[in-house]
Q: What sequence folds into this?
């Protein structure tokens, strides 16, 4: 009989803080950012100590104001990562930054696992 294990509760949660600059961060946008970043980084909970999300308006030559999202990750056991993304609104900017953070952490974890395997993996054995 297969057991139903909710894996989201077994992984450590990543604490996320959301702040805004040059613009108001609404309660809905803050809730969205907390949920989106936490869900994208959940599987890396053992590697991420915390995350900070900064949102601000970018005023350029175009009449519509774009949003800039900067995502700062504090990694374990040490180190930091900074991801920046722009979007037409705050929701798009947060989603883009969270997706980029997930792919960055995925690449780092794959790189670490390949380094642990050493010469036993991949193309070196086929030569």
A:
């Amino acid at each position: 009989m297969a057991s139903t294990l909710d894996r989201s509760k077994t992984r450590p949660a990543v604490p996320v803080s959301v702040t805004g600059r040059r613009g108001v961060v609404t309660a809905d946008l803050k809730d969205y950012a907390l949920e989106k970043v936490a869900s994208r980084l959940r599987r890396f909970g053992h590697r991420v100590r915390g995350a900070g999300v900064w949102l601000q308006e970018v005023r350029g030559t175009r009449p519509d104001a774009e949003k800039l999202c900067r995502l700062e990750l504090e990694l374990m056991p040490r180190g930091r990562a900074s991801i920046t993304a722009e979007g037409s609104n705050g929701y798009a900017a947060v989603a883009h930054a969270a997706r980029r953070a997930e792919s960055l952490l995925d690449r780092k974890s794959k790189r670490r696992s390949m380094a642990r395997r050493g010469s036993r993996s991949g193309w070196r054995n086929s030569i």
User: Anything to note?
Assistant: Residues 90-117 form the longest helix (28 residues). Helices lie at 7-10, 27-41, 90-117. The first strand starts at residue 16 and ends at 21.
